[in-house]
Amino acid sequence: MVGSKPYTLRCPSCGTRNRIPPDKAGLSARCGRCKTAFSTQILRESRPVIVTDGNYGTTVLRSPLPFLLFCWAPWCPTCGAVAPVMDAFARDARGRIRVGKLNVDQQPAVADRLQVRSVPFLFVFDNGKLVDSMPGGMNQHDLMMKMARYL
Ligand SMILES: [Zn+2]
Structural domain tally of the chain? Predict the structure, then answer.
């Protein structure tokens, strides 16, 4: 999303939403409520992040942005077709929604916790809570429509 609209990042310490002016993206910021300093590098990230059993808590549950998690498997042809859609979405939603990829074969603990029964599958998290889930075989347009309220 290009534009002058401020970004909104949750403080990693207290969860308060802080507005970040576009010209401050990438710089360090300070929470207006608890004064904790935090990085805004995430606003410049335009590729999906790799989610693992080890980083799920900090990356997904404590994400400063709403988080879209793409669960996939190497043997799944549909996943291969959806992957470029996720890459394009991560680029278009940069600074508004963070996108992550989870290989369910390599990261069984998270896959089990989310009860992933089929791939591809998408989960949406906001403020540490699972807020939406959907089968992931969708095109970019449908994904944009589905995620519009977070953009
Ligand atoms: Zn804070």
Answer: 2
